[in-house]
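Input.
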Amino acid sequence: MEASFLALLVGGFLGGAMNSVAGGGTLITFPLLLWVGLDPKTANASNMVAHWPGAVGAAWGYRHDLAAGRLPLLPLSAVSVLGACLGAMLLLWTPPTTFARLVPFLIWFATALFIGQEFRKGERETARLGRPVILCAQFFISIYGGYFGAGVSIVMLAALQLAGVRDINLANGAKNFLNVSINLVAAAAFASAGLVRWPEALALGAAATLGGYASAVAAKRLQRHHVRRVIIAIGLAVGLATFLQNWG
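Output.
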């Protein structure tokens, strides 16, 4: 087995696991696709395709939490589809060289979100936003999700917290459910445009599905602080490397 293929399997599993629990998996899988030789735009498209089955697996792992919750999932899913359509179209219209120069800043932005993300536990009251505000926020979050996607799970968790969702498992379930809509739309757009490298995307996707479902099942026992430090280091390093490559 080639080292690059094995790396995609391991990275896909870890990325799917991270996305299921809190987000940040793209900070593992996107650099891997760059490492195996894909250009940034193709890597982004292939990464979107790869993470769709992982989102499905993760959402299925949280199905009982979603069934017990009272979130407007269908309206949120509808605006996620609309936002992801716009984001995917923006990526398709972006020239490859322009996107390559944007990549380090997108990675640093996602890493900054990951550093600042901490879902507060406990019973303390949080601000409760009205449904129109939440739907509007999800629409703009989904535009970013359809364009690049790294860190989108973290932003969704923050929005759900502001909406008053204090149950981490319900929030993770809703985030994964909405990611299914975002990734499906983006994956379909990129696949129809011929941007996807299927061998890499399928290998990554199969591993991400296993990682997403396994992590959703074990999430309550998972201690993430060591993993978070590794992800942050990867994000900062990859951002610097792509900056030097495209701006140096």
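The chain has a mean pLDDT of 81.
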